[in-house]
TrEMBL record:
<protein>
    <recommendedName>
        <fullName>ATP-dependent zinc metalloprotease FtsH</fullName>
    </recommendedName>
</protein>
<comment type="subunit">
    <text>Homohexamer.</text>
</comment>
<feature type="binding site">
    <location>
        <begin position="57"/>
        <end position="64"/>
    </location>
    <ligand>
        <name>ATP</name>
    </ligand>
</feature>
<comment type="similarity">
    <text>In the N-terminal section; belongs to the AAA ATPase family.</text>
</comment>
<comment type="similarity">
    <text>In the central section; belongs to the AAA ATPase family.</text>
</comment>
<feature type="domain" description="AAA+ ATPase">
    <location>
        <begin position="49"/>
        <end position="190"/>
    </location>
</feature>
<comment type="function">
    <text>Acts as a processive, ATP-dependent zinc metallopeptidase for both cytoplasmic and membrane proteins. Plays a role in the quality control of integral membrane proteins.</text>
</comment>
Length: 274
């Protein structure tokens, strides 16, 4: 039914201050915010803003967060879908969802379309892959996406943002001029950036005043923003369990250990699969 295919229109209250680190990525997307706020400034001058932007980076580095911040800053709605949703669909459903998505977005422009995990549909079409129904569906979804990307003009007021952890796996057709031709890389945070991320997430937590954020940032090399958000919440849960008045350093240290244990378990499962 069409009701099922209706995409959820989202409003975002997230702003650039909620995104810590990622300074270069923020500079890059600021132009998009300006365009969405008032497309006429650009179209009046004949300036063509990129229609498709690919956010590339490891899991948990803030790709989704950045898209929400763009929507929040520009105060435009965003429509989001995840590439992985298409994988289990019947043939033709994925393509019609893509068509519906762009149709709805056109009616609500200026706005953002966000395609998370685009690699799930946009994987390189392998020449010698044996034929499967799932593959067929994926291809028809991808083809529809390419058609839609080619089918709207730069001044429609729609920006399509997509996210992936695996840009090397993507079908080059997606990255061609006029499609996702602008690429923004998000890296794991360095020490200073981890500190900034801790500060954002500590705002919503009642931590002891003397909490040593430098120490915590130093204890978490290789952690993503999502891992750090997770640590802050785990620490608060541990403190609550122990009926503490405030979240203390020891709770954070416990939380770091828990998150590390969780990450190790995850990577063990992945390596066993391979
Ligand atoms: P995935 O590839 O797994 O979808 P992602 O790159 O889209 O991950 P997000 O979903 O944006 O990552 O991040 C998850 C959560 O981690 C965010 O909602 C936020 O709480 C926190 N986070 C990640 N990066 C940052 C950051 N740079 N600043 C502040 N918080 C962050």
């Amino acid at each position: 039914s069409t009701a099922l295919l209706q995409e959820k229109e989202n409003k975002s209250t997230i702003c650039f201050d909620d995104v810590a680190g990622l300074e270069e990525a923020k500079v890059e997307v600021k132009e998009i915010v300006d365009f969405l706020k008032d497309p006429t400034i650009y179209t009046h001058l004949g300036a063509k803003i990129p229609r498709g932007i690919m956010l590339i980076g490891p899991p948990g580095t803030g790709k989704t967060l950045l898209v929400k911040a763009v929507a929040g800053q520009a105060q435009v709605p965003f429509f989001s879908i995840s590439g992985s949703e298409f994988v289990e669909m019947f043939v033709g459903v994925g393509a019609s969802r893509v068509r519906d998505l762009f149709k709805q977005a056109k009616a609500k422009a200026p706005c953002i379309i966000f395609i998370d995990e685009i690699d799930a549909v946009g994987r390189l079409r392998s020449k010698n892959a044996f034929y499967t129904g799932a593959n067929d569906e994926r291809e028809s979804t991808l083809n529809q996406l390419l058609t839609e990307m080619d089918g709207f003009s730069a001044n429609t007021g729609i920006i399509v943002l997509a996210a992936t952890n695996r840009a090397d796996m993507l079908d080059p057709a997606l990255l061609r001029p006029g499609r996702f031709d602008r690429h923004i890389y998000l890296e794991l945070p360095n020490l200073t950036e981890r500190k900034a991320i801790f500060k954002v997430h500590l705002q919503s937590i009642r931590a002891e005043d003397s909490l040593d954020v430098d120490f915590l940032s130093g204890q978490t090399p290789g952690f993503s923003g999502a891992d750090i958000a997770n640590i802050c919440n785990e620490a608060a849960l541990i403190a609550a369990r122990n009926k503490k008045e405030k979240v203390e350093k020891a709770d954070f240290i416990n939380a770091v250990d828990r998150v590390i244990a969780g990450l190790e378990k995850k990577s063990k499962i992945i390596s066993e699969k391979e």
